[in-house]
Amino acid sequence: MKSFIFDIDGTLLDTEAMYMTSLQAILHERGIEKSYAELATTFGIPSKDALLRLKIPAWEDVLALWGPRTQDYRDTVAIYAGVTAALADLKARGAQLAIMTSKRQFEYDRDVVSLGLDQYFSQAIVAEDVANGKPAPDGILLAMQRLGSTSADTVYVGDTIYDQEAAHAAGVAFGFAAWNGKRPDDLQPDVSFLTPAAMLKLL
Fold it and tell me: Where on the phi/psi map is residue 83: left (φ > 0), alpha (ψ -120 to 50), or beta?
């Protein structure tokens, strides 16, 4: 593999609590009670799609509140152990690195750029760059186009069924970020990485 394209949430960064707890709080204020577990089933897809899947009434209003409210839970976000070193090693050994995320641009700037992780990536595809978010392949295909990579030498690294479906729809291998300690029952990855450093074996 020469090209590694990454999801962010649950892959590079542990952000689940930030998103789910903030959404749960907003819904509670509107008289809508949803368990954390139910909300978490939508983690990893675009925010609009998550709200529609959850059948949230007046979802447009909730969406407008959700982004700003996550700022109240920023102290729960952390880079997974070993990620920074692995990215540095991959880049140093000539791998092409890109991000393809369901995050909007302001979220990418807030969560990735603010932590300095953007320095490892030559391309970043965010929600505004594509017409269709995951599990559609649009974002991965755009990242490959910008990298000048082929399906044979590209792996998409993520942590959810939506990541797997997007990777396979794009015709690339799906690498599961098993270092996050969670494994959905419906995943059938082409390769699993127990640690970030394990990605180096694909070079």
Answer: alpha
